[in-house]
Automatic annotation (TrEMBL):
Signal peptide residue numbers: none
Name of the top EC class for this enzyme: hydrolase
Family, as annotated: Belongs to the SurE nucleotidase family.
Protein name, as recorded: 5'-nucleotidase
Its EC number(s): 3.1.3.5
Record-linked Gene3D superfamilies: Survival protein SurE-like phosphatase/nucleotidase
Reaction it catalyzes: a ribonucleoside 5'-phosphate + H2O = a ribonucleoside + phosphate
Pfam families named among the record's database cross-references: SurE
Keywords tagged on the record: Hydrolase, Metal-binding
Organism: Pseudonocardia zijingensis
Domain Survival protein SurE-like phosphatase/nucleotidase: 10-196
Length: 266
């Protein structure tokens, strides 16, 4: 990483180009000394995971130049595509020079447990790891809660420390930071956390018959079961910001080895 040039950070999210959390993260990255470029979905793309869907006209996807409040001179683009598509495009020739790191967020609402698989915020960070870039997904608050005045400053307070961890890590490292939506003075110490089994929210889907046809109706609710100790869900509920290293899809040998399969099952 030693170089006389500034490191370049691609800032993206899944809440869309007009999210104040995106501006907050871009501002924090700029203040940390990064050369910043912003590219985010033109509309909300929450819950798309690692999708590389884009609105295409033949083989083209529209990109709209934007100027973000408080960030004069910072290149910013609203892209008619999902967060992971934006990251992959950056690694397939769109951005020159390519980013050194990808920072995704600040998401409104925590991304916890193995349910991070469905998060577009996390999906962008995991896509960056596939390109060999370090990446950080940043989320603020609790699931199912949309605060009137999010404490973006609490996430930014932790950003320099977490960026130091990220930049000291090997290439392709992907980290997920969840921060309680409280004032800086009320933050408990940052803790490393393992992923909870499901996160703190469970979705139930009901089949509903109506006059206009059959529907699937989703209901989200926080889990009433006890929280697993030392998981991201439990620590965040206790007021701790949490940091978790994530791994993308990988293979594991031994699928045709009957003894290995029995050991896994046992």
């Amino acid at each position: 990483m030693a170089s006389s040039r500034r490191l370049r950070a691609l800032i993206t999210n899944d809440d869309g180009i007009d999210s104040p959390g995106l501006v907050a993260l871009a501002t924090g990255a700029r203040d940390a000394g990064f050369d910043v470029v912003v590219a985010a979905p033109h509309v909300d793309a929450s819950g798309v995971g690692g999708s590389v869907l884009a609105i295409r006209e033949d083989d083209r996807t529209r990109v709209h130049r934007r100027e973000l409040p408080g960030l004069p001179g910072v290149p910013a683009f609203a892209v008619e595509g999902h967060p992971a598509y934006i990251v992959h495009s950056a690694g397939r020739g769109w951005l020159d020079p390519e980013p050194d790191v990808v920072l995704s967020g600040i998401n409104i609402g925590a991304n916890l447990g193995h349910s991070v698989l469905h998060s577009g915020t996390v999906g962008a960070a995991l896509a960056a790891g596939l390109h060999g870039w370090r990446a950080l997904a940043v989320s603020l608050g609790r699931p199912l809660v949309s605060p009137e005045r999010p404490h973006w400053e609490s996430a930014l307070h932790l950003l320099p420390e977490v960026l130091d961890v990220l930049l000291a890590a090997p290439d392709a490292t992907v980290l997920s930071l969840n921060v309680p939506d409280v004032p800086v003075a009320e933050l408990s110490p940052l803790r490393e956390a393992r992923l909870a089994k499901f996160g703190s929210v469970r979705v139930r889907v009901d089949h509903v018959e109506g006059e206009d046809g059959d529907l699937l109706r989703s209901h989200e609710a926080e889990l009433a079961t006890p929280l697993e100790p030392d998981t991201d869900t439990a620590l965040l509920a206790a007021g701790h910001p949490t940091l978790t290293e994530l791994q993308s899809v990988s293979d594991r040998p031994g699928v045709l080895d009957g003894g290995e399969l029995r050991r896994r099952a046992g």
